[in-house]
């Protein structure tokens, strides 16, 4: 396992949201990042948390964190454990009054919760080898128009925007 941090939340060339996870320590040479494509709502939630923005009403991941706090539980760590046919799998390890519990979760939700909880994020070595891309090739230069549009969205986000 390699400990990582959220390096960026960006849009790929096709306009899809991607979270880039970067190892905390130089794990390999050359340096690699793990791209995980996520939905727009999850990208917004991760970005809100990493940038310290406040929203008028709690997002789903804020609610998850509040529920855990209320139950005297905390997120110990999140692990991106494998990739199967392009689908990423993750686990959240919780410390609860009843002991340590590990639950299956989507990486996007796991990362959004980990950022809010200040928990460690880990990626399996096999995942880094299989899907990691060279950091030099990860085009992180944002399309300014799309970035401005996303920032405007964050400023004007309304809880009703997230109702199904």
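^ structure tokens above, recovered residues below v
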């Amino acid at each position: 396992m390699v400990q990582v941090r959220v390096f960026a939340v960006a849009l790929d060339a096709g306009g899809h949201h991607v979270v880039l996870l970067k190892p905390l320590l130089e794990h390999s040479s050359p340096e690699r990042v793990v791209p995980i494509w996520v939905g727009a709502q999850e990208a917004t939630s991760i970005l809100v948390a990493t940038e310290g923005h406040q929203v008028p009403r709690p997002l789903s991941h804020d609610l998850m964190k509040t529920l855990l706090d209320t139950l005297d539980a905390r997120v110990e760590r999140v692990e991106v454990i494998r990739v199967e046919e392009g689908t990423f799998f993750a686990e959240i390890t919780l410390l609860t009054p009843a002991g340590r519990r590990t639950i299956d979760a989507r990486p996007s939700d796991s990362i959004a919760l980990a950022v809010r909880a200040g928990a460690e994020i880990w990626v399996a070595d096999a995942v880094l080898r299989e899907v990691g891309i060279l950091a030099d090739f990860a085009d992180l230069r944002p399309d300014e128009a799309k970035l401005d549009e996303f920032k405007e969205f964050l400023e004007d986000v309304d809880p009703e925007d997230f109702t199904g």
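The helical segments are 40-50, 60-70, 107-117, 125-131, 144-156.
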